[in-house]
Amino acid sequence: MSEEPDDLDGGGYDVEDWSRLAGFGGRVATLEDVQAGRAVFALGDTEDPRPIDMDLPQPVIWWDEDEGEQAAVAVQAEAHGTEDGETMEVLGLILPDGAGVVALLDDVDLVDDSDPVWRRLVTEAVGDERGDEEA
Q: What is the number of alpha carbons within 13 Å of residue 118 lying toward its C-beta?
């Protein structure tokens, strides 16, 4: 059986309904999970891949090099070893418009849904997507 098609992106969210997003945890995602819409990413050719113990979904502020700070919700968290012995902590994020992106844990701030900056960023993104500005 397949999962509901809106398991991850659901067409986006606002400050009131973000928690309906389904988190992917307990194991490392496969390409099949991504194709089925259960996970945002699947990394291959890494050493010792494992899920990160984190409550999901988790509101975050993502510091994107091109766009600056953006509201997002982490729905996937994994640690992957590299050939040089480093560990990458990688998150699968859903943006307010429903887009999925991959970010390093170091590039986000974990917040809760009452954080005024996160709420403002979500509201601005939803307003931009709808062509209006919500107060």
A: 22
